[in-house]
Write a structure and sequence with these properties.
Blueprint lengths: L7 E3 L5 E3 L3 E2 L4 E4 L9 E4 L4 H14 L3 E3 L7 H13 L9 E6 L6 H15 L4 E6 L16 H13 L3 E7 L3 H9 L7 E5 L7 H9 L3 E5 L22 H10 L3 H11 L3 E2 L6 H8 L8 H8 L47
Parallel strand pairs: 3-6, 6-7, 7-8, 8-9, 9-10, 10-11, 11-12
Antiparallel strand pairs: 1-2, 4-5
Helix pairs in contact: 1-2, 2-3, 3-4
Bound molecules: NADPH dihydro-nicotinamide-adenine-dinucleotide phosphate.
NADPH dihydro-nicotinamide-adenine-dinucleotide phosphate binds next to helix 9.
Organism: Spodoptera litura
InterPro entries: AKR (IPR020471), Aldo/ket_reductase_CS (IPR018170), NAD(P)_OxRdtase_dom_sf (IPR036812), NADP_OxRdtase_dom (IPR023210)
Keywords: Oxidoreductase
């Protein structure tokens, strides 16, 4: 069986975090028959679940130790079952795993953070998570009401969860530079991480520089951006998988275009959490720690940055603390990002 050897970064609280993790967001499918008043809507993608469970199981077998999940993803029970089995089978010990989950918009009152984390622990069947993140800085009720809870209040709930040992580290996700500055200036415990979209299309230099200068580790979600077919549209920017510059760099090191991409992020001091349900890609994505991109290639790759966001939830853009630049488009919040009990798994509350 293949084996991968994934190094670690150290967080500002001294905890080690593997530099590459397994992402568990199965995505949402566009539903076309949503009715005349809703030209389209989204539902959680159920199809990938059995494949994801097999791929995650395989990932742990070959050496992955870091798993990224979230309450939102509706997969915590399944992720928990795989972890449980791997521990019982003696493949891995709990202390060797690094499990991240996230607190959704409905749980931003200080006291609700603990409610959310305890729910995740129950679903994951764990006593603690290694890292818990504030998924977004906005607070939105299940009815779509802007609750306008200051993320500084929410953060106090995170500090409390940390002090109770329910999480070993605490962090944020989707915070922009201004929000990071304000949080760092007004917290007792600084966030260990900021998980944001970073890929070749979206380099986020200012945010990465600020976080790194202040000892906050960056974790890159959607690390492939629009490179992979599931995300690329005819009008989405380069590089795609067949981009000649990327192909040439890959050839030079005997690596694939996706491996070059993940290696580029690692050399910028960034953790990546690519998602794949394909076993060969599970191996491929983690086989990036045996080569080094030279300075010229790092500079060439940096030039693809054009500020293009793959994840742009503009249906939240009028809510307080929406972190990204606004665009003219309008859209209702998809029901499945709002109403909790229509997930794939009835155990999700
Ligand atoms: P990714 O950039 O990981 O892309 C996933 C897609 O890439 C899938 O279609 C997958 O296909 C394909 N793929 C994976 N590896 C390869 C490869 N080697 N070659 C070709 N194609 C490949 O995007 P995600 O948006 O899923 O982000 C990763 C993770 O980040 C999520 O799973 C989630 O854990 C986290 N996340 C966090 C967010 C936040 O707000 N904090 C937002 C979005 C994501 P296939 O599976 O069919 O192999």
């Amino acid at each position: 069986m293949a084996r991968v050897n994934i190094p670690s970064f150290t967080l500002n609280d001294g905890t080690k975090i593997p530099a590459l993790g397994y992402g568990t967001w199965l995505g949402m499918d566009e539903k076309e028959d949503a009715g005349p008043s809703k030209p389209f809507s989204f539902e959680f993608s159920a199809e990938g679940m059995p494949k994801m469970m097999d791929a995650l199981s395989y990932a742990i077998d070959i050496g992955y130790r870091h798993i990224d999940t979230a309450h939102l993803y509706r997969v915590e029970p399944e992720v928990g079952k795989i972890i449980d089995k791997k521990i019982k089978d003696g493949v891995v010990k709990r202390e060797d795993l690094f499990i991240t989950t996230k607190v959704w918009h409905h749980f931003h009152r200080e006291a609700d953070v603990e409610v959310s984390v305890r729910g995740s622990l129950r679903r994951l069947n764990l006593d603690y998570v290694d890292l818990v993140l504030m998924h977004w800085p906005m607070s939105i009720s299940q009815d779509g009401v802007d609750e306008k809870i200051d993320y500084l209040e929410t953060w106090r709930g995170f500090e409390s969860v940390l002090s109770k040992g329910l999480a070993k580290s605490i962090g944020v996700s989707n915070f922009n530079v201004e929000q990071m500055k304000r949080l760092l200036a007004n917290c007792k415990v600084p966030p260990s991480t900021n998980q944001v979209e970073i890929n070749l299309n979206l380099g986020q230099k200012e945010l990465v520089d600020y976080c790194q200068a202040n000892n906050v580790l960056i974790v890159a979600y959607s690390p492939f951006g629009t490179m992979v077919p599931s995300r690329s549209a005819p009008n989405s920017p380069e590089p795609k998988l067949n981009n000649p510059t990327m192909v040439a760099i890959g050839k030079k090191y005997g690596k694939s275009v996706t491996q070059v991409t993940l290696r580029y992020l690692y050399q910028r001091g960034i953790v990546s959490i690519p998602k794949t349900v394909t076993p060969s890609r599970v191996v491929e994505n983690a086989s990036i720690f045996d080569f080094e991109l030279d300075k010229g290639d790092m500079e060439t790759l940096a030039k693809f940055d054009n500020g293009f966001r793959t994840v742009r939830p503009f249906f939240w853009q009028d809510y307080q603390n929406y972190p990204f630049e606004k665009i003219p488009d309008k859209m209702e919040i998809p029901e499945s990002l709002r109403i909790w009990k229509n997930g794939l798994n009835l155990d999700i509350d």
